[in-house]
Structure formats: structure tokens, C-alpha cells
Amino acid sequence: MKKYFLFDELGTTYSREIIGGVTTFLAMAYILAVNPLILADAGMDKGAVFVATALAAIVGSLIMGVIAKFPIALAPGMGLNAFFAYTVVLTYGIPWQTGLTGVFFSGVIFILLSLTGIRETIINAIPQQLKYAVSAGIGLFITFVGLKGAGIIVASESTFITLGDLSQGSVLLAIFGIFLAVIFLTKKVSGGIFFTIVITAIVGMVTGVVKTPESIVSAVPSVSSTFGVALDPIIHDFGSLLNTQFLIVVLTFLFVDFFDTAGTLMAVADKAGLIRKDGTMPRAGRALMADALGTTIGSLFGTSTTTAYVESTSGVAAGARSGFSSVIVAILFALSLFFFPLLDVLTGAVTAPALVMVGVLMVSSLRLIEWNDFEIAVPAFLTVFMMPMGYSIATGIAVGFIFYPITMILAGRRKEVHPLMYVMFFVFLAYFIWVR
Known about the structure:
Elements: H1 7-10, H2 14-28, H3 31-40, H4 46-68, E1 74-76, H5 80-89, H6 96-115, H7 118-125, H8 128-150, E2 153-156, E3 160-163, H9 169-186, H10 192-207, H11 232-236, H12 244-271, H13 284-301, E4 306-308, H14 312-317, H15 324-336, H16 348-362, H17 374-389, H18 393-410, H19 419-435
Antiparallel strand pairs: 1-4, 2-3
């Protein structure tokens, strides 16, 4: 087992991988509760979506761990599920069954792109300086997500965002957790982020801020209402898919998941020290295939697009370095099918400290960017800035990648730009003009 997962090469142990896997699961387990709530607004059964969410995470994380051997977990993505429910179904008026068909199509296209090596080639064509920017941008993004989820940062009509009500119990619990995490990480306590989540959850239950579960075990809900319905329009009414609106749906799923996953892979691999000296990723093709298969299989079970989770960086921060931690995540998602009531404990206040600390660790890559070169500084800065401000990893990548070839050409360095970066320049422009 150690030899297969390259423990000696990566300098890791079973205990580090298990703690890392548990930490990643705790940081992302909220999706089991949130995804059914969002997709229920589209008319889907909550229980079926809960099971589909867990199954998609199990399949994607297992493939990522066993085949790609990366410490990265997968599950249905936030943002993509909101697009599915509120844009595809509620705005476009497309039935959720057809929406799942769109997810299925995007997954199949991803599989083809992964088999041909096109996705891996595109990721390896991205310059190292922008990869550093993507990593830092994701750090700021997940910090923002954590603070927002805890209520420390809230919406404001006058200033867009502002400081939340610091007298609220959930906010105080999150602040307590952040201070606790700072203490653990400053003292270099192994598994400090994991212990922070556990202790914060316990304090939350003791103080009444976090609801204590009424039960521990529950029956696994039926998935019969969603299983296989993605194939129904293909089999019985294929003509209904032949329209521009459905094409836009598929392309949006493709675009957002492609670059969300690419950004997450680069960020986690960089933090885990898995990026080669030439800036490429080992086994990148296998990692991308895990995402593609997770999306395809997840759509058949009845959930929106499956993607790599940036919360995996919390597991890396806790010590995970190999795919064994992803296997642990898959096992925990499988067990969660029987322990759904316990997931109510993982509120935004409980997981916020982990996300904030991961953000602190990830922005360290800013020091590696050549800020004195203006042609590099502009796209790098816009990539970092637009992720939290646009509330999208893909948007940050798109803006930065549009400016990169422009500034490099103006600086007389066009020969240093990989040809694929010019292709992506036009792809991103088209995305903003016709899709976004």
C-alpha cells in the first residue's frame, strides 16, 4: 500500500494521510446538506439528491485517489449547482431532467478531451507565473467563502460587503475557531486544522450555537426519482436538445468546470509540492479523467457537475500528500450515507476557520510572482483579484488569461507565450461576450 501510494517518495505516513483525508472531508461535507437544498429549488427530491451527491463524491474521489494518486477530493460543485437550479431550470425554463442531460453531455465531452490529452496539454501550457496567481487567488476566494459562510462578512446595500454582526453566536464561534486555528498552526501542531474543526463543533453544541443532532443514524433515502433520468431526453426526445439554449447550458458547464478543476488541481498540487520543476503536473491526465468520470456518473445518479474541491487544500495543510487521503474521503462519504443527521453540525461557523487558514497558506505563492515585470504583474494581479470579487475561480482565470497575451505582446515577449494561450484568449473573450 505504501509503495503504491508513493509514501516514501512523498515523505508521508498513514496517520498524516488519514488526518488529511478526515480534514478534507470535514471541510467539504457541507455539500451533502447544501446541494440537496439548492437542487430541491429546481424541483428535485432532497433525499435522492443527497444520495447522488455522496455517490458522485465517492466515485470521483476514489478515481482521483487510486488512479491519479492526488490528495484531491471531488464532489458536486458549488456555483455549478446554483447555475443548474436558478439559471437552467428556473430562468431558462428547462426541466431538471434535461438539465441533468446537459451535465451528462459535458461529462462525456470531458472524457473525450481527457482521453485525447487536450485538457492536460492546456493546463501544462499555462505559464508558471499565472499558476502561482491562480493558487493565491483561490486562497483569497476560499477565505472569502469561509468568512461569508460564517457571517463575519455580509452583504451591504451601500458598500456591497461589510463586517457582520460580531455579537451573533455563530460569528463569535467562527472567530473563536480562527483564533484556535492560529494557535495550533503557529505552534505547528500536527493536524491543527482538523482539531480546530472538531473542537469548534463541540464548543458550538455546548453553547447552543450549533444544533445538537437528535439522532445519529438514519436510513439511506431512495435515489429512484433521479437515477438514469439524464438519459431520458436522449432516448425519447432527442429533438428537444437541438437548440441554442441547451448548447449554451452544456458549454457553460464545460467552461466553468474545466477551469475550476484546472485551477484547483494547480493550487493543491503546488501546495503539496507535487509540481515538477518545469511547471507541469505528474499524472495530470488521470486527475482530469477523475473529474470527467465523476461528472458523468454523478449526472446519471441525479446531481449537477462534479468537480475538484479547493477544500482539499485543508487536508494538504493537515499533512496529506498522496491519493490515500482521497480514498479516506471516499470512505467517509460512503459512511455519511448512514449518518446524515451528524452533518448538521458542520455549519459555516465550524468550517470557516479551516478555510481562512488554508487561504493564509495559499497566498504565500504571491512571493514567487515576478511583480517587477509589469507584463506579468497585470494578468497575475487581475487573476488573484477577480476570483473573490467575481465570486468565481473560472472568472478570475478568464480575466487574467485575456490580459496575459496582450501584455506580453506589448512588452515584445510574444515568443514566450505558448500558442494555446492565444487560443484561450479568444475562447475567454467568446465566453464573456456570448455566454457570461
